[in-house]
Amino acid sequence: MENHRQEISAQLAGPRATARLLAGLPALGLLMAAGLGMRPLPFLFTTLPGIGCLVVGLLLNVAGLRWTDRMVRKAEDSVR
User: How far does Cα 5 stand from its chain's mean position?
Assistant: First the structure.
């Protein structure tokens, strides 16, 4: 039984890593935009559309991480 749990945990490592990578991509996008001479941070923090984009993006990012975490936990709980 313990071997089966370890196997499931190993198989779920990929989806967990993918979720973390996807959660970090917006930060990479901001860095790329800044590198191209754009000013993403002033837009996101000082304009109404920017604040809206920031809030919606953060909410979607958190929702995606929670959703992935819930799926992984369900998969782990089904083994127990």
Answer: 25
pLDDT in tens, 19-75: 899 999 999 999 999 999 999 999 999 999 999 999 999 999 999 999 999 988 888
Task: Fill in the DSSP letter of residue 67.
Answer: H
Domain map (residue ranges) of the chain: 2-79
Sequence letter at residue 64: G
DSSP string, 13-63: HHHHHHHHHHHHHHHHHHHHHHHTT--HHHHHHHSHHHHHHHHHHHHHHHH
**Single pTM value for the model:** 0.79
Per this entry, what is the length of the chain?
Answer: 80
Closest CA to 61 of 17, 27, 11: 27
